[in-house]
Amino acid sequence: MSFLNNVITGISLGSIYAIIALGYTMVYGIAKMLNFAHGDVIMVGAYVCFFAMGSFNLPPVVGVLLAVVVCTVLGMVIERLAYKPLRAAPSLAVLITAIGVSYLLQNSAQILWGAATKTFRPIVEGSLTLVPGQLSVSYVAILSVVCCVVVMVGLTLFTGQTKMGKAMRACSEDKGAAQLMGIDVNATISMTFAIGSALAALAGVLMCSAYPVLSPTTGSMPGIRAFTAAVFGGIGSVPGALLGGILLGVIETFGKAYISTDLSDAVVFAVLIIVLLVRPAGLMGKYVPEKV
Amino acid sequence: MKKKNLAALLMAGALCFGLLAGCSNGNNPGGNSGGAVTIKVGGIGPITGDLAQYGTATEWGAEIAVEEINAKNGPVKLDYRFEDDTGVADTAVSAYNSLKDWAKDAPLVIYGCTTTAPCVAVASETFADRYFQLTPSASSPDVTANKDNAFQMCFTDPGQGVAAAEYLKNAGLGTKIGVIYNNGDAYSTGIANAFIAKAKEVGLEVVATQTYPDDKTTDYTVQLNACKDAGADLVFLPIYYTPASLILAQAKQMSYAPIFFGGDGMDGMLDMEGFDKSLAEGLLLMTPFNASGTDERTKSFVEKYQEAHGILPNQFAADGYDCMYAIYEACCKIDGIADMDSQKLCDALIAMFTGGDFSVDGLTGTSMKWLESGEISKAPVVVKVEGGVYVTQ
Question: Residue A115 is nearest to which of B52, B249, B255, comparing CB atoms?
């Protein structure tokens, strides 16, 4: 029974990682940059929802929507102010800028909302009992998995069917050629950040509902885990982010339960290294040989 | 190229000068302002970063005491300044150096640091430079080990673990005990190890010992399951309140309801914004300070703190407040303080603190005394959360 419990914990945790990883992977696929500030957008989303529900007594749905809207705008503003001027700069400069933005968000959050940890009220409470006293699934876990699947299907359809989605795929293949074909590359990148940040807001609310503490550094650790998940699944690949996220969540939980609570992170990263040794581009990533 | 070299030389020169200035200060005798001697108190603690909540509490608690002391027009006045160390050891040493710069014209006493690792680093500097140092909350024995100038206002970690085991034995609580602690943290590990050793000695049965690697951990179901499976009816949590709040919530979710017993790091949980206080109902914790205490001094402190900062003070703030009074009261008793520099004051304060007949009444204890090791001796207080407030046991 505890095995099943661990599977459930792992999958629900993994779904949240997967939603965050989607943001990483899309931005990387299209802008070819690692947006390390992504984790902190999660935190901002969670705070917005926290205050919407706590201070203004809005219903959870409105709180989530508000978080999504605020983060979408935030993501686009960050992209416009911090990353766009560096479009032609070396990727290292962009990476350092992203780390800078991450600290800026954390410290701004601390000035605005204080360093003290806040307790997040879950957007859905209670749990579904499968076997009384032994096996139950919290509604938050179910919601996380459902959200993850919906987001995944939605994104696949979006990138496959819509004009904007096709523009995104074109940009990820070859930015220069896409521009020559009349695609507005800047607008496409901006759109990618908007979608990624909206997902981050959703992930933030789900994560804080599952583990209800909120502080200015809440987003940093899940951000790094999700980045790992994105690399695990193959960075740039949408289904890869899902697979990577869920596997990471399950491995982490199993590592804790059956190997050691202290070594669970080490186990996760050891598996990552092995996967990358066998498949350098990640589980579902496309391996593109460098032409010399 | 030449210009660059010159600029570099100038910069290096300026840096060296800064260092020299840092080393040579503190030799001037205490400043006199209208008959009262002014002592500079330089505080160090994290007021930004992960640990900011603890640093700001020690900063603000001391501030209130300083205002009260200076309003008294006594023989000693305190000039107080607080520097940020972000909870990092080398930043703390820089903060200490800038405090030495600041205190060129008056004797300096170091108040801090809030957390253990920076405090150990700063204490070895103050030991070499001969500044008196009193920390409100850095509780590792490493802080005071082999340093005659470093003193603590809080319990040491092992001291707290031993006191916890003795309390459980005497109160007859917990036939089977589980322990969950953060083994990446010296505070948590220090209490847990001493607790487990003492528990064995006094005949308490520890059935499960579970660890987690850092306070960013969010899932504790595995650890709780292990305690549940081992049949623990009391779980000892020598950890900080943020992870503890998650443990309480997850235990409730899995319908596991042992008695939870925590150390002083648990204090502050009830003031977390949005925290469901019913989760903490029945929680026992050892804390030297009870903000709902009814004595005059506590009431006035809580009132002033709330007015200034909008939140209830926790034990970190109270420890900070008591530190200022300990320094003040000791300084008042020292003869010829007006002619002392930082180093002479340091020796005089050490003699006063370890002299045996010096004791302080404060918010966190009465007749508090210090051992020669720098450790404090005061009675531990256990409180129980009932109806969302502390009730002293």
Answer: B52
Domain residue limits, chain B: 35-155+299-377, 158-287
CA proximity to A17, closest of B219, B50, B183, B224: B219
CB atoms within 10 A of CB A45: 32
Domain range for residue A86? 14-113+132-218
Hey, are the CB atoms on B274 and A133 less than 8 Å from each other?
Answer: no
Do residue B272 and residue A110 have CB atoms under 8 angstroms apart?
A: no
- Residue A95 in any domain: the answer is yes
Q: Which CATH superfamily is domain B158-287 in?
A: Response regulator (3.40.50.2300)
Smallest Cα–Cα separation from A201: which of A76, A101, A54, A112? Answer: A76
- Helices B89-102 and B2-24 pack at an angle, to 10 degrees, of 70
CB distance A262–B225 less than 8 Å? Answer: no
- The answer to whether the CB atoms of B221 and A5 lie below 8 A apart is yes
- CATH of span B35-155+299-377: 3.40.50.2300
Topology match between the domains B35-155+299-377 and B158-287: yes
Query: Which residue out of A119, A131, A139 would a mutagenesis test of the B interface target, given it has the greatest number of B Cβ atoms within 10 Å?
Result: A119
Q: Along the 292 residues of chain A, how does pLDDT read in single tens digits?
A: 678 888 988 999 999 999 999 998 888 888 888 889 999 999 999 999 999 998 898 999 999 999 999 999 999 999 999 999 998 888 889 999 999 999 999 999 988 988 778 888 888 888 888 877 677 888 999 999 999 999 999 998 998 899 999 999 899 888 889 999 999 999 999 999 999 999 999 999 999 998 888 989 899 888 988 999 999 898 888 889 999 999 999 999 888 888 888 888 888 888 889 988 998 888 887 766 655 5
- Which neighbouring-strand residues pair with B180? B210
Residue of B52, B225, B273 lying closest to A119 (CB–CB) = B273
**Which residues in chain A have their CB less than 8 angstroms from residue B221's CB?**
5, 9
**Residue A101 belongs to some domain of the structure:** yes
Other residues' Cβ atoms within 10 Å of the Cβ of residue A104: 14
A115 CB neighbours in chain B (<8 A) are 48-53, 56
DSSP string, B228-274: HHTT-SEEEE-S-HHHHHHHHHHHHHTT---EEEE-GGGTTGGGSBT
Q: Do A261 and B222 touch (CB under 8 A)?
A: yes
pTM: 0.75
Rounded to an integer, what distance in angstroms lies between the CA atom of residue A232 and that of residue A246? 10
CA atoms within 13 A of residue B127's CA, in its CB half-sphere: 15
ipTM of this predicted structure? 0.74
Q: Is residue A55 part of a domain?
A: yes
Copy the structure tokens of residue A228: 């790992």
Instruction: Retrieve residue A278's tokens.
Output: 């066998």
Q: How many domains does chain A have?
A: 1
